[in-house]
């Protein structure tokens, strides 16, 4: 699995403000877009080796949705989950919180994908 596999499925969400690893930044290092936005990261890729090669690969994926309200963050996260359903997400963990640095609410999806 690659970042393109994830991006192609969620690119149209959050007014097309979807970024791998970090939100688009301005010259001062601050977000260059207004919320909401989605950041996704492939945290790890763990191939399962067998005698004849790689049998499968476990991919750990994290999606963070930032918005001015927790309700909006959660709603977009749900759209992300639906958009990624063809990847058969497993071991899903849903987290939410507040980021005092940005003043935004965050809804997070941690999941694994067996490829």
Describe the structure.
This protein has one domain (3-114): Phage tail protein-like (STM4215-like, 2-Layer Sandwich). Helix content is 19%, strand content 47%. It contains 2 helices and 5 strands. The protein has helices at 3-10, 70-83, and strands spanning 18-20, 37-50, 53-67, 89-99, 104-114. A 5-stranded mixed sheet has the order 1-2-3-5-4, with helices on one face. The chain is elongated and about 50 Å long. The mean pLDDT is 92.
Key structural traits:
2 helices; Gp17-like; 47% strand; five-stranded mixed beta sheet; 115 residues; STM4215-like
Please give the CATH architecture.
2-Layer Sandwich
Average pLDDT number: 92
The unreliable regions are none
- Give the domain tally: 1
Pfam family, one: Tail_completion_gp17
Protein name: DUF3168 domain-containing protein
Write the layout of secondary structure elements.
Layout: H1 3-10, E1 18-20, E2 37-50, E3 53-67, H2 70-83, E4 89-99, E5 104-114
Parallel strand pairs: 1-2
Antiparallel strand pairs: 2-3, 3-5, 4-5
């Amino acid at each position: 699995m690659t970042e393109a596999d994830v991006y192609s499925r969620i690119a149209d969400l959050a007014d097309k403000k979807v970024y791998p690893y970090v939100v688009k930044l301005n010259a001062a290092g601050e977000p260059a877009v207004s919320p909401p936005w989605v950041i996704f990261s492939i945290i790890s890729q763990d191939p399962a080796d067998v005698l004849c090669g790689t049998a499968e690969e476990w991919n750990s994926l994290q999606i963070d949705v930032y918005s001015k309200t927790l309700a909006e963050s959660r709603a977009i996260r749900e759209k992300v989950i639906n958009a990624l359903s063809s990847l058969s997400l497993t071991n899903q963990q849903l987290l939410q919180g507040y980021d005092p640095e940005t003043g935004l609410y965050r809804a997070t999806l941690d999941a694994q994908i067996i490829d």
